[in-house]
Amino acid sequence: MRLDKFLKLSRLIKRRTVAKDVSEQGRVWVNGREAKPSSTVKVGDELKIQFGQKLVTVRVELLSESTRKDDAAKMFTLLGEEPIKRESDSIL
């Protein structure tokens, strides 16, 4: 399944166009590699997504071509959330 479609169906990102834009900006990694919107996502892959000043890590658990809102959370497991340190913070 395409990365942008997975992000939208799993409701990690609300809209597919936003998921595409985030991927094109280099803010999504699949298994440690920067990913494009068309990158293929498989069950077991680890995704890291930068949301503003937060880095979210999830593992893909289920791929489904369509999903209901209640079932979207079953598509991934949240592995962690960590704040991103700005360079100006480390100088002080």
Provide a count of the helices.
Answer: 4
Count the E strands. Answer: 5
Structural class label: alpha+beta
Could you give the order of strands across the largest sheet? 2-1-3-4-5
Beta-strand fraction estimate: 25-35%
CATH homologous superfamily placement? RNA-binding S4 domain
Fraction in helix? 25-40%
List low-confidence stretches.
Answer: none
Number of domains: 1
Major sheet size, sense and barrel closure:
5 strands, antiparallel
Distance between the termini: 44 Å
What name is given to the CATH topology?
A: Structural Genomics Hypothetical 15.5 Kd Protein In mrcA-pckA Intergenic Region, Chain A
What would you say about this model in short?
It holds the Pfam family S4. This protein has 92 residues and is of the alpha+beta class.
Structural summary, described in words:
This protein is α+β, with helices and mostly antiparallel strands. The chain has one domain: Roll (Structural Genomics Hypothetical 15.5 Kd Protein In mrcA-pckA Intergenic Region, Chain A). It has helices at 3-9, 16-24, 69-72, 87-91; strands at 28-30, 33-34, 46-51, 54-60, 76-83. A five-stranded antiparallel beta sheet has the order 2-1-3-4-5. It is globular and about 40 Å long. The termini are far apart.
